[in-house]
Write a structure and sequence with these properties.
This protein has helices at 7-10, 49-53, 56-66, 72-77, 79-86, 129-141, 145-148, 156-161, 166-169, 171-184, 202-214, 238-242, 259-264, 270-281, 296-300, 302-311, 334-344, 353-356, 363-381, 385-388, and strands spanning 4-5, 11-14, 19-21, 43-44, 95-96, 105-109, 188-193, 221-226, 232-233, 236-237, 247-253, 286-294, 316-320. By secondary structure, the chain is an alpha/beta fold. It is globular and about 60 Å long. The termini are far apart. 41% of the residues lie in helices and 14% in strands.
Length: 399
Amino acid sequence: MGVYCKLPFTHIFSDSYGVMMPCCYAHVDHPYKSDRPGDFPTASVEDGILNYWKSPEMSQLRLDMMKGEMSDTMNSVCKQCIYNEKAGLPSHRIPSDTVPLGRVLDIKLRLFGNSCNLTCYMCNIKNSSYRITQTEKMMKHTPEVGEYLAYDDLPEYLKKDGGFDLLSHSPEVFDKLMLDIKKLASKIKSITIIGGEPMILPSHYKVLDVLVESGHSDKITLSYDSNLTRLQWKGCKILDYFDRFKSVDIKWSIEGVGKYDEYIRFPTKWQTVEENFDIISAHPKVNIVANTTIQILSVINLDLLSEYLTKRGMTIKFIPVDTPQVVSLGYMHPNIRKRLSNKYRGTELEFICQELDKNYDGWEERWEKAIKYLNSIDYVNGTNWKETFPELCDLSEDR
């Protein structure tokens, strides 16, 4: 048997639109404009998350993977991971050489809402209510920003309301989803709650209540992607739930140290985040790792962040950003990329050099867009990218 990605065997995923797909990086035939377009079928959570996981298309994908050879379907669905692997970047594929059995399901749901208290520089706007509001203000300063961030591709309900919470917007769908989760509780190994920022999503706490009521919570691992800016919301304290579950895995979304993180993940307060980290990490059931995106702003001081996290005993997962494209490394001035490549060569961050060393046609236009985007952010946030990241101002060639 060949080595294959285990996600289609153990993973149930839905995105911000309530659309089911093999995983969050898959190229699919999305009913809305897809960041990663393809022809693999999707389905709505209204049709049942278990029904999609058992669908003929998902079953065939799993059979293809078990054959140990790359089928046309796999080449299409897994295109992003294949690209990352060839480019020397981290891949999201999780290989396994055995078919998992028993309590194996990892449920990853992004549909509980997109409410978020931050306007992260690299965030896809559909995943953050605050980003949508920010984008609308940026478009008044720089209309092209709407194109950079695919504002026109947002469904009308997000343009109208910005924030979305499944419990309040579609209570019938939410109740149906809870019934599916109850049916699956004996098979669930872990459940990942993604936002927005999960700690401020009211429906997320309802999901935890359902899992506790199922009698299986003590065998289930909670998993979060969190900015650690809030540990409670409207009377619900996340620490009160942790003891009811087997364990808690937290992926701390962090892009820099101090002022760098405060700019990229505006309006983060670094002192608050550090204090919340100390509180969370002290809990005996909690395991924390760092999630760091690879994009124009984070890559400048990635060595400082790596040193900071290493001193705290943290494992770091690096995530290349491909959407929005305007923040990706291909939009960085080549002279700056060359200096960074020289800086990181021979270090633990050398894997980034292959991407930094690429030649991009039309880089002048790309760089111009990247600067326009930064200027529009400063216009709305009252920040100054030139002061925070002066490295972006030096376009000279190294002698």
